[in-house]
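Thanks for the sequence, V.! I ran TetR family transcriptional regulator right away. Repeating your input here for the record:
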Amino acid sequence: MTVDHGVEPAIRADARRNRELILAAAQRALAERGATVSLAEVARRAGVGAGTVHRHFPTKTDLLEAVMHQRVDRLATSAAEHLTDPDPGAAFFALCTHVIVTTPGNKDLCDLVQSDDGWPRALLRDAGNRFHRALGALLASAQRHGTVRRDVEVADVLDIFTGCVAIQRHRRQDAPLAPAVALILDALRTHPSPVTERPKVDRNETGVGNETSAPCAVCGTAVRRPATGRPARYCSPACRQKAHRLRSGTRRLTTGR
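Predicted structure:
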């Protein structure tokens, strides 16, 4: 009996492709529906059979851990790649922004990993340690560059991630940084951005129903635009009455009555 050795690599490539499809589908499903999502739902989203999912991940715990490991591993790789950027300060804040913006959808996974439910965390610990080392090296580089405060430590940055992710969760998944998050990150800088006051808005002058229309037909004062109905022509009842008297006087002159 002969074995076609060209078949085995093709099978391995197909298995790797299926595994990646399953992980990608699980990531999306978990971000949308949380850790209660079923393996059958993940299989449906991945376009594979339930048996294929079970061959790669016999239990949901195996799948959840693989998804979380993939995420942390990618963050570690991203942090390491940022070390070669010519501007360490910009690279550090770019990484912080990426972590904060992309983490809210993984909140349930983070909670599971941090719980004491007996998860086998060896792979996660290894990926987490690599991320922390790369983050620490990037932080130190940004501090040497004079961009980030010298008194900031990796533990501080991780605590800031936790708080900022909680704030960011109240925004849409594709939304930019929340203003409060931007302020917190700015506090890490050696020289924070100058504080600029938001322009004060006179609520009586702007907004729907308060915008000005044409000036008063009698005195020229700006006329408030009502929320509904036709725009007013006069600024007050007095001007409206004055206009009426003017019209009546003009009619009598022209008609003789």
